[in-house]
Structures are given as structure tokens and as C-alpha cells.
Amino acid sequence: MVLVRRVDRHAPAPVSPRCGPRRLRSTGTGAGAPAAASGDGPGYRPTVVDVPAELADSAVGAPATAGSSPPSAEELALVQALRDGDQAAFVVLIDRYGSAMLRLARTYVATAEAAEDVVQETWLGVVRGIDRFEGRSSLKTWIFRILANRARTTGSRDARSLPFSGLTPDDPSDPTVEPERFTPDGRWAGHWAVPPTPLPEDRVLGLELRANLEAVIDGLPARQRAVIVLRDVEGLSATEASEVLGLSDANQRVLLHRARCRVRAQLETLVTDGGSRP
Amino acid sequence: MNAPLMACIDVVDLVTEWMEGALDEDHRGELEEHLVVCPDCTEFVRQLRLTQQSLANLRATALASVVRDRLLEEFARWTDQRQG
User: How many Cβ atoms are within 10 Å of B60's Cβ, its own excluded?
Assistant: First the structure.
């Protein structure tokens, strides 16, 4: 059996994409000549966009944010309404993004109060800067970028909480699928020994587990939490999320992978335990 | 029955890259062949999609009214300044 094992094509990632510690499998032909990532998927772009300065949308020479979707017609209407001082437009936006912004802010700062302050400052920045919004990215991306910059600044003043400083890896020894769940050796080495416990869709999507799910997100390492909030809770594209967080696409994907695997594992535990605990 | 080319542990490892469309063609082919014959990995993929869906359900959770009220006050102040 020859398994063409992928070699790491990407720039060194701060965390391993692996779900659990394991041996490298044999490599076959082709492994030594890594192809560029095919990039044929939705939202995938090889470009790495640097962390933009706050309100960089209007900065001269700002990169034409490749891969970012332009603002929708609805967003452009909201922008105009904000410029006109229309409170209803503001309400639409804070109700749409407020909770996700709080969640994201919370990954940078130490307390819920500090996160609320960051969100408030962000909205002030949004309304004060709305005349400078030129529509190079979606309004959503623009707002989250302002938030991430604010939160980063606040977080870096806060000695207790520096989740994004440097490249502090999330704990790579914490497997997202336990290695014991795979057959260790023999013909079926690396195949499921303890397959995933079925997750009933109605339970997972039901209201009952909602509070648990919030707690699971809150328990993720900061960078995983930031990525999964933007991608899966808020529905940003890979490119948009990478841009907001100042991550390479590859690192964004690694963090997303780890985060999703962990949430899945927690759901499995919750469903297996049969009860929802607050 | 022969074991599939790619092991389950590799599928688990690469699945997000696959879902994101970032996997090169060779690995994508192997992974998809594996899914055809492996109900457990198919279930794993289904569960990751279900996980995504459950997270999307948290979108637009209501803001605490105290936070919301504060924001609306700030907005009113801003429009006053702008017009004044």
C-alpha cells in the first residue's frame, strides 16, 4: 500500500493541522514535489493580506482586497442611511453583528466589560468613519476589521490577556480526535477503532444545546475561537476572516480545523452524556 | 476487502482543507474515494457540517439591552453633533 502523504506545502504554520499526535505515514512519488495549493475552492486565495490599518479601506494605496466581496446593494443602502443619520439603519447593524463582535472582542481582552467597551468604541469608529467607507470590502468585513484593530490595541494594553501576541501556539498536544480512536497497527492501521458516535441532527440543532454550544466556544483557545466565530457563527469567507484577523489563509484553515474538530468532539460528548449541562 | 488508500486518520487530518477547497487534486481524489467506501468518515464529515450549522444558529444572538441602549445613546449623540 502506498499512501501519498502530503508534505507541508505551506509556510510554517504555528500549529499542526493534525487532529492528534501520530506517526507520519510513508510517502510515495510526488510527495517531494509539492504542488501549489490548487485554490479551486470557494473563497480560497493564496494571497496573504497584511493586517490593514484601521479604516484602511480609504487609505491611499490600500491593497485591492482580492477575494473580499464588495458590499451588497443592501449594505450600500445601509451605509447611505448611516451617513444620513438614520437610527433604524444603525439598529439593523448592531442587532446583526453586535453579539458576534462581543464574542470576537472577548478573544482579545480579559473581561466582558472591556469587550463591551471595545464594541462601543468600534461602533463610534464606524459612524465617525462612515464617510470614508469606499466599498473596497464588504461593510461587514470593514466593521470587523475596525473591531479587531481596536480589540488588539486594547488587548495589548491589558497584561492579563495577550492571545494574539506573537505566535503563541494553541496547545498542540491537545488532540481534537483522540489518537486512541484509531487502530494503532496492522492492516487497518489509522482506521477508526472507535468511530464517531452518531449525532442526532435534531438534538445538535435544537435550542436545548444552545447554551452548551456558547460555553464550548468560550472554552476554545483564543485564536481558534476568533476564527470559528467569524467563519461559522458569522459566516465570513475564508479570505474575509483571514483579512480581519491578520492571518495567512493556511493558518486560518488550521485554526478552523482544530476549532471545528473540538466543537464536534464536545457535541459528541454532550449527546453521549444524554443531558445538556449549562 | 482491501483497506482504502488513505487511512481514516488522514481523512480526519485533511478534511477541513478538503471542505475549504484547498486540497490538491491527488489528495482530493484519494479522500473522496475513501469517503465512498467508509461510512465512519462520511459520518465524521456529516458531523463537521452539522457542527457548522449549529454554530450558524448562534448568529445574531440578541445583544444585552444595556449594551444596546448605550450604543443607541452614542448614536443619538453622534447624529446631534453631526447636525449641530
Answer: 14
Q: What's the confidence (pLDDT) of residue A194?
A: 92
- Considering its fold, how many domains does chain A have in total? 2
pTM: 0.75
The helix-helix angle for B65-83 and A87-106 (nearest 10°) equals 130
Residue A67 carries which side chain, given as an amino acid letter?
A: G
ipTM: 0.90
Closest listed residue to residue B33, CA positions, set B57, B63, B7? B7
CATH of the domain at A264: 1.10.10.10
User: What is the span of the domain harbouring residue A80?
Assistant: 72-157
Lowest mean pLDDT among A70-84, A143-157, A163-177, A261-275: A163-177
Domain assignment present for A67: no
Distance CA A117, CA A156 (A): 15
Q: What is the pLDDT of residue B3?
A: 58
What is the predicted pLDDT for the residue at B4?
Answer: 61
Q: Find the residue in B nearest to A256 (Cα).
A: B16
- Does A192 sit within 8 Å of B55, measured CB to CB? no
The closest alpha carbon to B8, from A242, A53, A191, belongs to A191
Burial class (CB in 10 A: 0-12, 13-18, 19+), A185: exposed
Residues A258 and A197 in one domain: yes
- The alpha-carbon gap from B22 to the nearest alpha carbon of chain A, in Å, equals 5
Over residues A258-275, the mean pLDDT reads: 87
Query: Poorest-confidence range of A40-44, A152-156, A192-196?
Result: A40-44
Query: A15-48, pLDDT tens digit by residue?
Result: 444 443 343 343 333 333 333 333 333 333 333 3
CATH fold of B8-83 reads Arc Repressor Mutant, subunit A (1.10.10)
Least CA distance to B67: which residue of chain A? A116
Report the residue from A30, A37, A127 with minimal CB separation from B26: A30
Query: Count of A–B CB contacts within 8 Å?
Result: 192
Does residue A9 lie in a domain region? no
Where along chain B do its domains lie? 8-83
